[in-house]
Amino acid sequence: MAQEDVFKKIVSHCKEYGYVFPSSDIYDGLGAVYDYGQMGVELKNNIKKYWWDSMVLLHDNIVGIDSAIFMHPTIWKASGHVDAFNDPLIDNKDSKKRYRADVLIEDQLAKYDDKIKKEVEKAHKKFGDSFDEAEYRSTNGRVIEHQTKRDALHQRYAKALNENNLDELRQIIIDEEIVCPISGTKNWTEVRQFNLMFSTEMGSTSDGAMKVFLRPETAQGIFVNYLNVQKTGRMKIPFGIAQIGKAFRNEIVARQFIFRMREFEQMEMQYFVRPGEELTWFNTWKEQRLKWHKALGLGDAKYRFHDHDKLAHYANAATDIEFEMPFGFKEVEGIHSRTNFDLSQHEKFSGKNIKYFDPELNESYTPYVIETSIGVDRMFLSVMCASYCEETLEGGETRVVLKLPAALAPVKLGVLPLVKKDGLPEKAREIINELKFHFNCQYDEKDSIGKRYRRQDAIGTPYCVTVDHQTLEDNCVTIRHRDTMKQERVAISDLNSIIADKVSITSLLKTLI
Ligand code: ATP
To answer: Which of 253, 262, 9, 216 is nearest to 107 (CA)?
Structure first.
C-alpha cells in the first residue's frame, strides 16, 4: 500500500477510535487545530508522563515549572521573535495555494535522497550478501549524479538561508523546476517573510489595550524564571528546568494532520551550564534524548539526526531528531545550544541583573543553555504511525492492531465476560475493582468475544482477560496478548504481577539508566 494511503488510514483510525478529532468538528473544523478524544488524551498524558519523569524524577538537578501563556510583550522583543520569528512564504498564482519556500526545497532534497536510496536497494537485492554499499555509492554513475546534484542544491540552499536571501530561494525553486502539487505549474510569486506569532489584546485602559502575544514556544517562560528557580531551589550549575505547555504558531501551511498545528504542545527543558562547556553538554543531551526515543521500541532505524543548515539567531549548534513518518523523515525534537543569548537579552531589556554566581569558580556569569524541545503532538503522531498495523491472520481474516508500547497504551487491560449473565459480568467488575488502582481497565460485554478482541486491538490494549463459567469455580481467567494473540490460563490473583510491570512507565524509565 502506498505510504500516502497508510497515512490516510491512520488519520481516519484516529478519528474512529477516539484518538484525535478535528477541532470544532460540527462546524467543519478549524484549520490545523485538533482535539484529543477519550483515547488520545490518555496516550498524550502517558507520553507527557514518560518525558516529565525522565527529566524530573531521574535527574536530581532538573526541576519543573508551569509558566503562563501570556507574558510581557517585551519578552518577545528581547528574544528576537518580534523581528525574526518568520518563515519564507511563496504562493502559486494558479492554485492560489501558499507554501513555505524552505519546505519546498527540502522536499526536493528528499526526492534526491529517495532516488539514491532506491538505486542502492535495487543493487542490494541484485548482489545479495556480497553487496558493498559504500563501494557502490562511490562508483555507480547514477548514484554519483544524484548525489552531486543533491550536494550542489544543499550548498546553495544553506547559503541562501544563512544570508536570508529570499530572491535566491525563489530562484532555486525556479531552477529546480519545482511545481505546485495542486496546479502542477511553476507560476510562483516572490518569496516573502511571514511572522508566525499570534497576537491579541489585554485589558482596556483609556490609552487602549496592550498588544500581547500567544507564546510561540514555552522556553521563554523558563528563561524569565530561571533566577527565581535557581534562588528558591538553591540550584547549582549545571541544572535544568523542564516545562510542558501549549504553544501557538500561525503556520503558513498546515496540511499534515497533527504534524503541523497552529495550537500545539511542547515539552521543553533548558539546561543551564558554564560558558565553554555547552558543546559537551549538547552532545550529552543528544545522546540522552535519542536513548529516550529508542527505549520505546518503535524501531531504531526510524530515527536519525539532522543538523540544521541554518542556525537560529540564538544558537551555536543545533540538531533535530527525525522520525520516519509515512511522509518521510521529519523533525520530532530539536536540540539546540542557545548560548547565553536569551538570558543576556532579558538582562538587557529588563535592566535586571540575572547573572549566576558560581561558588566554585568564585565568579558571576550569564549561563549558557542547552535546550531539548519536543512536540507532544508530533511524538503522538510518530507513536501512532509506528504502531498502526494491518495484519492478515491464518484463515485469511484481517485485523487492524495498534501495537502501542504497553507503557503508553491508553487502556492496559480489557476485561470481557464471556456472556452477559450467570454472574460473569459481576465477576468481571470485581476484577476491575481490584485492578483499577494500578492501571486503566476497560469493561466490555457487547458482541462476540472475537469482535471485542478486535475492538481492543484497534485501540491498542496490550492485554485482555476473558471471564468464563470456569472462572467462578477456579478463580482463573484466560489472558490474551495483543501482539501474539497467544492465550493462557492464569489465576486472577496473579494478574497484577503479570501485567503491572509491563505496562508501567517505571519499567520504561529503568531502561534509561
Ligand atoms: P519546523 O521546522 O517543523 O517548523 P521548528 O524547527 O520550527 O519546526 P522548533 O521551534 O524547534 O520547531 O520546535 C520544537 C518542537 O516543537 C519541534 O521539534 C516540534 O516537535 C514541535 N513543533 C514546532 N512547531 C509545531 C507545530 N506547528 N505543530 C506541532 N508541533 C510543532
So the answer is: 253
Task: Give all domains of the chain, ordered by start, each with its CATH number.
Answer: 1-84+196-278+336-373 (3.30.930.10), 86-193 (3.30.40.230), 403-510 (3.40.50.800)
- The C-alpha atoms of residue 260 and residue 465 are separated, in whole angstroms, by 39
pTM of the model: 0.90
Query: Best mutation site among 194, 331, 337, 377 for ligand 1, i.e. most ligand atoms within 8 A of its Cβ?
Result: 331
Strand-pair category, 62-64 with 239-248 = parallel
Mean pLDDT of residues grouped by 10 in the chain (513 residues)? 88 98 95 97 98 98 98 96 92 94 94 93 89 90 94 94 92 96 94 94 78 96 97 97 98 88 98 97 98 98 91 88 95 97 97 95 97 98 98 91 98 98 98 97 97 97 98 98 97 97 95 93
Which residues lie below 8 Å from residue 304, measured CB to CB, with a gap of 6+? 321, 322, 329
Please give the span between the terminal C-alpha atoms of the chain, in angstroms, as a whole number: 39
71: nearest Cα among 192, 186, 185, 211: 211
pLDDT value of position 351: 96
pLDDT at position 205 is 66
Q: Which atom of ligand 1 is nearest to the CA of 375?
A: 20
CA-proximal residue: ligand 1, atom 16 (nearest): 375
Q: Quick check: 110 and 102 in contact, CB under 8 A?
A: no
pLDDT, position 350: 96
Going from the Cα of 461 to the center of ligand 1, the distance in angstroms, rounded, reads: 30
* Site to substitute for ligand 1 among 373, 376, 382, most atoms within 8 A of C-beta: 373
CB under 6 Å to ligand 1: residues?
Answer: 249, 251, 260-261, 264, 266, 331-334, 373-375, 377-378
Give, using CA atoms, the residue closest to atom 29 of ligand 1.
260
Q: Whose CA is nearest to atom 21 of ligand 1?
A: 375
